[in-house]
Amino acid sequence: MCLPQIARQQHFDIYTRAGITAAQFSSYNPGLDCSKLQIGQKVCVSPGSLPSNAPGPSPNGTCFEYFVQPNDNCFGIATKFTITVDQIEEWNKNTWKWKGCSGLQVGLAMCVSPGDSPPIPIIPGLHAFGFCGLTDEFCTTTGPNPCISNCGQPTLPSCSPGGTLGRYIAYYAGWGNRRTCGTNVAPADVNWEGFTDVKFAFATISQGMEIQLADQDVPLLKELVSQKEKYSSMKVTIALGGWDFSEMEPTRDLFSVMIGTSGNRATFISSVKNMMSTYQLDGIDIDFGTEDSNIRLINQPYIFIEYPGAIERGAPATDTPNLTAFFKELRAGIPSAIVSCATPAGYWFLKGFEIDKIVENVDYLNMMSYDYHGQWDTNVTD
C-alpha cells in the first residue's frame, strides 16, 4: 500500500512537496491523467497501491447504488469511491436514464460498483424511452426499444362477474357554492340518484393538528348529509385537502407536520372521529402529495401543477413512510368507516406513495385520471 496524498493543488506541487521526481510520481500513479486531477483526489507519493474504499455489489447482485447530488460530476464521484470514470461509464451502460457522465441528472440512481443496474421501482414493464405499461410494447425484451426493467407479461387479477363493487363518486365543492357568477348549486339542488359516494370538499387541518371545516361550509355539509334520507344508497365522506391548503402559506406544510409524529396523528384521528360523529359522516378521503425520498428539487411553493402538494414542493423524505403509518392508524381508529385516498395518475408523483402498503388500509384509491389529458393535448392530431 502506498503513502497516499490528497490533492489540493497541481501535481507539480504534490510531488515537489513530497520530495520525489515527476518520473517517480508518474510511476507511482500509472494511468493518472494529471489534467483531470480533482481536489480531494488521493494519489500515491511512494510505491504501492492506494487504499481502496470502493464498494462491492449488494448481496442480491445489484450494484452499489449512488444517488446523484446537485453539482456532482463523475470525476468527483470516482474520487469519493476510489474508482475511475471509465469504470463508472462501463458499470452504467444499462442504468435507466443514464446519459453518460456528461449528462448526470440530480436524483439518478447509478452504479459505483459492478453488478446489475439499480432496479426501477415500478411494477409494470419499462421500455427504453422510460414509459411503463402492461402490454407487449412495454414488456417484451426484443425490438428497437426493448423492456429494461420488470420485463415479462404480468398476470392480471380477475374475479367473477358479480365479484366487483361498482362505485359512482362525486365531489361537492363547498367553495363552489360561494362563487359570484350566479350559477351556485346547493346540495339539495342536485339529483344524487345512482351515486354511491359523495365527498364534501374540503376540510383542512388546524394549527392544533385537528380536522376543521370553514364556518360557511357547515350548513352546506349538513344539507348534503341530509340528502341520504332521500338517496339511501349514498354515502357522504369528508375530503381533506384542496389547492390553497396544500400549496399556499401558511398551511402548505401542515399535512406533513401532522403525519410527522405519532402524537400528531393520534390528535388528528381523534378529531376525525369527532367530526364524523357530529355530522353523521361515513368516512374520509385523503388528498396529499409526497416526495420521492431520492429526489430533492428546489422548493416551488406556487408551481402550477394539477396535483396538490406534489413532488416539486420539496417535502421531507420521511413523508413517505409517515403517510403509510398514518393510513394504518387511521384505519385502526375508524375500522368500519370508508377510508379512501386520492392518488395522482403519473408515476412521477406516485413515487412518493407506498401504494402497496397503503392499499391494505383503504377501501379504494381514487386516481385523478384528469392528469392524463388537458390543454397540452389541443394540437395532437393522431
Automatic annotation (TrEMBL):
Entry's Gene Ontology molecular function annotations: chitin binding
The LysM domain, residue ranges: 1-45, 64-112
Stored SMART domains: Glyco_18, LysM
GO BP terms, alphabetized: carbohydrate metabolic process
Signal sequence extent: none
Gene3D superfamilies: Glycosidases (3.20.20.80), LysM domain (3.10.350.10)
InterPro entries membership: Chitinase_II/V-like_cat, GH, Glyco_hydro18_cat, LysM, LysM12-like, LysM_dom_sf
Keyword Ion transport found: no
Top-rank taxon, per record: Eukaryota
Record keywords, A-Z: Chitin-binding
Positions of the GH18 domain: 166-382
Protein name, as recorded: Chitinase
Organism: Paramarasmius palmivorus
